[in-house]
Amino acid sequence: MDEPRTIPPRPRDRLFAAVTLVLAVLLLPAALARHPGRARELACRWALGMRFPAEDLTGLTDGAMAAFTAARTEALWRHGQLIGLTSGYRDPHVQQRMFDEEVCAAPAPRPRHECSCYHRRNPTTSRASRWTRAPRRRALARGTVSKYGSEEEAARWVATAGTSAHVSGDAVDIGLFDAAAWLSEYGAEYGLCQIYSNEPWHYDLRPEAVDDSCPPMYADPTHDPRGREKRAPVSWR
Ligand SMILES: [Zn+2]
Questions:
Q1: In sequence order, what are the beta bridge partners of 176?
Q2: How far apart, in whole angstroms, are the C-alpha atoms of residue 170 and residue 167?
């Protein structure tokens, strides 16, 4: 649950995909020599690492890592589809700051000077946060993100630290529209499900989906009973 949005298909994405697939093929012999039983996975990982050098998979649970790796390995080899991570694990401070920014950046009904956002007192340095911080700041500067006038409204779009599956390492955000569309069709085979219809980039680990398919989606996080049960005080201020 968070801010990243999927990027619409661009002509250059097909070129990137083709080049990455060729790279994976070229790397296959080396991967075979290294791990004969996992050569496709390894070659895929190496090739995607070159295409998405900024992505950071650290902090994902073993289950989420295995599901995500299996899904994007198959996506590459079966359909030539690249799946890159824009955000995985987040520490609680990062997640709460994202929520606070959505609320405190709003021009009304809470003027910015009245906000005492958690993140102003607790700067964080996690790698995952750096990945999304810069574009987010630019968006805030443009005034394109500061549109939620209350904590309740912000909660429809950004989870608190107490409700986000990113904090437990069981969620991944996907950057490209085509990649999210691929996961929408095949993600259940790997236990990855879109949970909220207003967040097509966000996938939770749901191992039971492998046998039972993904559960119906909620309109947004505020409809998720898990969140209502776990929801901590909306702000740590
Ligand atoms: Zn997310």
A1: 7
A2: 8
Nearest to 44 by CA among 25, 63, 64, 67: 25
Distance 173 CA to ligand 1 centre (A): 5
CA 89 – ligand 1 centroid, Å: 9
Instruction: Give the Å distance between the CA of 1 and the centre of ligand 1.
Output: 4
Distance between CA atoms of residues 61 and 166, nearest Å: 10
Distance, CA of 113 to chain centre? 31
Which residues are placed with Cβ below 5 angstroms of ligand 1, an ion?
Answer: 1-2, 173, 202
Low-confidence ranges of the chain (pLDDT < 50): 106-134, 137-146, 229-237
In the chain, where does DSSP find H-type helix? 11-34, 39-51, 62-79, 92-104, 118-121, 127-142, 151-154, 165-168, 177-186, 209-212, 225-230
Tokens of 57: 């998979």
- The pLDDT tens digits for 43-58 are 999 999 999 999 999 9
The DSSP H or E segment spanning 65 is helix 62-79
Cβ-proximal residues to 58 (8 Å cutoff; 6+ apart), any chain = 88, 89, 127
The model carries a pTM of 0.74
Query: For 179, phi and psi rounded to 5 degrees?
Result: -65, -45
Query: How close is the Cα of 182 to the center of ligand 1, in Å?
Result: 17
Q: How far apart are the first and last CA of the chain?
A: 21
